[in-house]
């Protein structure tokens, strides 16, 4: 599913250096202060903030069977960001974690209301958070960095994607995998 493929091949995220000819470096404009957004679980016990700098690794709708079951929904929207971009601001003591195996995704949720708050992948940096938990104003004007770029595991979709709004590509694997 989305989980393993997201990080394994993202050179930008892992900063994997490959032997490439040196190219002339042009200074990039310095980014402005990172924009911070806040969100919370259903009951409000667990709150978090997320920034857009460095930018998210990927934003997608996931249709895989395990994610559908974990969210009890026909699909879900997730944004994976570098770990330093995501902070639990209150309620850390209420966060519970579930993982089927030691090598599978850890799904982190509020132990009071049950809202899924974020995902962690074993041995990989980064956090997958759910834009549906961002404050209402942000949800209605979702930053472009948090908007889905594609439909992941479209082959497992239970929705008719031919009639799904928008023109996002349908991928059956992460677009950067070499398999």
Describe the structure.
- The structure is a single chain.
- The protein is α+β, with helices and mostly antiparallel strands.
- Helix content is 13%, strand content 27%.
- The chain is built from four helices and eleven strands, in the order ααβββαββββββαββ.
- It has an eight-stranded mixed beta sheet with strand order 6-7-8-9-4-3-10-11, covered by helices on one side. A three-stranded antiparallel beta sheet has the order 1-2-5, with no helix packed on it.
- β6 and β7 form a beta hairpin.
- The longest helix has 7 residues.
- The chain starts with a helix and ends in an 8-residue tail after the last strand.
- The N terminus and C terminus are likely disordered.
Q: Helicity level, as a percent range?
A: 10-25%
How far apart the termini lie comes to 13 Å
What's the rounded overall pLDDT mean? 75
Strand order within the widest beta sheet = 6-7-8-9-4-3-10-11
Which structural class matches the secondary elements?
A: alpha+beta
Order of helices and strands: HHEEEHEEEEEEHEE
**What radius of gyration results from the CA coordinates?**
17 Å
User: How many helix segments?
Assistant: 4
Key attributes of the depicted protein:
179 residues; alpha+beta; 8-stranded mixed sheet; 3-stranded antiparallel sheet; disordered N terminus; disordered C terminus
Set out the fold topology.
Elements lengths: L1 H7 L2 H4 L21 E5 L6 E5 L6 E5 L2 H7 L4 E6 L4 E5 L4 E4 L7 E5 L5 E5 L6 E3 L6 H5 L9 E3 L17 E2 L8
Parallel strand pairs: 3-10, 10-11
Antiparallel strand pairs: 1-2, 2-5, 3-4, 4-9, 6-7, 7-8, 8-9
